[in-house]
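Action item from last week, closing it out:
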Amino acid sequence: INGTAPIISYFVNNSATATSASVYIGSTTGTDWKLGKNVTGVSGNANFSIATNGNTRVLDITSAGNVGIGTTSPSEKLDVSNLEPRIDFYTSDGSSAGQSVNAKIESYADNIYGNLGLRFFTGGALDTTQKMTIAANGDVGIGTNNPGAKLDVAGDVFINASANSNSLKVY
């Protein structure tokens, strides 16, 4: 790690009186990456954190094992915080059928009261479109972005009855 031409330089900050223990990757000034306990020097922070650009924490893990992305105090096993958080799925395996496959799930403000719904997108990198919506009130839309009923489908629906039944029951 630290030879005559190091690829990565590092600095370990720890002492008997220190309130933090950090590893700086790239420089000792904290302008690259830091990881460790209390990387920002804030009193009372016992999280394991990863920070970049000085003291901008990008990931925190609490002693309870909760992981926070975009939050310094995660309350769940995975807590993602952003104005409109989303999860992107992307792969480019090089085959003609699987190149640039892209899908994502994102939350969105469903109304002026801050109630959140979920949007589901699928498609290729150049054609990722919304396919399904779950509104804050529980309405589900398939092929429509604004469902108006508990199940709102825009397009054909195919229902295959089981081998023991040849009827469709709607209640």
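Closing note: The mean pLDDT is 75.
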